[in-house]
Design brief:
single chain, about 260 residues, alpha/beta, three-stranded antiparallel beta sheet, 7 helices, 11 strands, about 35% helix
Length: about 260
């Protein structure tokens, strides 16, 4: 089983398929995973296999480590394209998330004003007003919407609590276009108690209703992508270039910018 557990609170820089040279900000513990989803394709593995013993980094620790890293990058002449909140789970779970966003914007403006601040989120905390407002302040508010099919969501994304996709869509609309939708498309089958089940969401029965939801949300951009690293669940397969390109083209035809990452 493949697992990537990221250092905390700062990791990288790394080259992101979608964002360029990215300096990662991990608000979760350095020795485990904390997430409101338990996706079968997550590069960090399953929640149950990586229970952390360390606490989340404090606001002060994040700010101090980020400033140290940015000073070093400035001295080396290698500035990031983006400061990305990602890592070992869901960043908006951090109780000081909004304040950390403010600190990060301040440090970005001081050391690398051309860089974008991005947040990769699974959307489960956007009902919290302070999270919504903080995401409105970042450059790239990247929110997950893998499908609008509840059965598929429970099978693949595996939310840890109540997850109403229609409520998520309504809350996404409340960003008034200041949102980038990120969707994982993949193929394959997984073993279940009853045998095997498909996890292919590239077919019309998934794409068409998802596209209607995207049109209703009217995001500034859509990012469609597929599996890039080994997954904790066997049997998962990449969506093909042709499948991603077709989906991407349909989004563009709807008047919404879209990129595909293979």
């Amino acid at each position: 089983m493949s697992t990537i557990i990221y250092p905390s609170p700062i990791f990288g820089p790394i080259h992101s398929r979608r964002l360029g040279i990215s300096l990662g900000i991990n608000l979760l513990p350095a020795d485990g995973k904390v997430c409101s989803f338990d996706c079968i394709y997550c590069e960090c593995g399953f929640n149950k296999d990586h229970r952390p013993t360390l606490p989340m980094p404090t606001r002060e620790q994040v700010s101090t480590k980020l400033e140290q890293q940015l000073k070093q990058m400035v001295s080396e002449g290698q500035l990031p394209d983006v400061l990305t909140f990602a890592g070992n789970g869901e960043p908006t779970c951090h109780p000081q998330f909004a304040a950390i966003i403010d600190d990060t914007i301040r440090l970005r403006d001081q050391y690398c004003p051309q860089a974008k601040v991005s947040v990769l989120s699974n959307s489960t905390m956007i009902h919290r007003q302070e999270v919504h407002d903080a995401l409105m302040r970042v450059d790239n508010n990247i929110l997950k919407l893998d499908t609008i099919d509840p059965i598929y969501i429970n099978k693949v994304d595996q939310p840890g609590g109540t997850y109403d996709v229609q409520q998520i869509i309504e809350r996404m609309k409340a960003f008034n276009g200041h949102i980038i939708i990120q969707t994982m498309f993949m193929r394959g089958e997984i073993k279940t108690e009853g045998g095997t089940e498909s996890v292919d969401n590239t077919g019309e029965e998934f794409v068409a209703p998802w596209l209607e939801a995207v049109k209703a949300i009217q995001p500034q951009q859509v990012m469609v992508y597929t599996i890039d690293r080994e997954t904790p669940t066997p049997g998962l397969l990449k969506a093909t270039h042709e499948q991603l390109d077709t989906i991407c083209h349909r989004v563009i035809e709807a008047g919404i910018p879209c990129t595909a990452s293979y």
